Amino acid sequence: VQPKESGGGSVQIGGSLRLSCTAPQFIFSISAMGWFRQSPGGGREFIAGIGKNGGSIEYVESVKGRFTISRDNGQRMVYLQMDKLTPEDEAVYFCNAAPNVATLRRGVLSNWGQGTQVTVSS
Asked: Which tens digit of pLDDT belongs to each residue from 81-99?
């Protein structure tokens, strides 16, 4: 069963969006969760990860200080708050699960969802 992302949309430069993702309980409760993105013509890249208990948070350099990952284990939700968006943030955003954040960072995962499109315009 695939993770399900939502919350994408169109926003102006400097604006904010909050993405959400849910996954089945049997996956969510034992997994680190991460956010990835794929720009047109590019590969899918890891951008943020969070451990199963909310620790071990990591970000790629390009989003540090602008994006915040969080999770609500009771609701089986993981969030990505994105602030100060730039055109370089325009992409399809995905979430996925792995045993730990290091595995998320490597990005060699299966069971991808449809993603959610984020468009940033002037």
From this structure: 999 999 999 999 999 999 9
